[in-house]
Amino acid sequence: MTRLLLGAIIAAICGISLCPAQPNDSQTITNWGAAVDNVQLAINVTNKVIEAGAGTLVTAWTKNSSTNSIAIYTSWQSIYDFDVFLIDQQGTEHHVKPGDPGRYGSGGFRSVRAGSTNRAAIALYNWDRTLKPGPYTLKVKATFWDTTNGDVDRNSKHDLVSNLLAIQIKSPPPAK
Fold first, then answer.
1. Does residue 142 sit in helix, strand or coil?
2. Which of 165, 153, 122 is nearest to 37 (CA)?
3. How far is residue 15's CA from residue 83's CA, in Å, rounded to a whole number?
4. Backbone angles phi, psi at 88, to 5 degrees
5. In angstroms, how far is CA 75 from the centroid of its own chain?
6. Hey, where are the domains in the chain?
7. Residue 106: what pLDDT?
């Protein structure tokens, strides 16, 4: 697990694309977020018990069941391509983002063909260590655009919301 997370973080920092548009692999997704123009978002995590502030890996799948290609934006680090939230028992959404990276690399649009699924690894790290331990719901939001003859229609922005995952936040170890 630690090697997988470390590899994902290094790949994200270096701008390496972990997974191009492709059909689902051996992991079958059965719980998708609501469809928007026949496009859906699903998430899963490798560990559903997470230490506050510790790193974890969220996998996000964007499934295009429409008859047209769509475009998703990809940058040098996938955490900045998605909006990740932890929702506490009172319904408060905590936006999970690491601190400002100090620099931003270039990004661009990636096409997801009709009938295809894109998989992205979102490495969460250096997030709020002050979150109270307890049960939370993990939610991810993403955006896609329509394409015509390979051109992105920037006026056709659509927002997706993933399925919801129950996770547990535990206290970090005491500082030494």
1. strand
2. 153
3. 18
4. -85, 180
5. 12
6. 2-23+31-170
7. 64
Residue 154 burial (C-beta neighbours within 10 Å; 0-12, 13-18, 19+): exposed
pLDDT for 75 equals 77
Q: Residue 56 has which token pair?
A: 């974890």
Alpha carbon 131 to its chain's center: 20
Strand pairing category for 165-170 and 49-51:
parallel
CATH architecture of 2-23+31-170: Sandwich (2.60)
Q: Which residue ranges of the chain lie beneath pLDDT 50?
A: 1-26
pLDDT of residue 5: 43
**C-alpha span between 39 and 63 (Å, rounded):** 6
Tell me, what's the pLDDT at 100?
A: 56
Residue with tokens 């699924």: 117
Phi, psi of 2 (to 5 degrees): -65, -40
Q: What is the DSSP letter of 9?
A: H
Give the whole-angstrom CA distance, residue 176 versus residue 174. Answer: 6
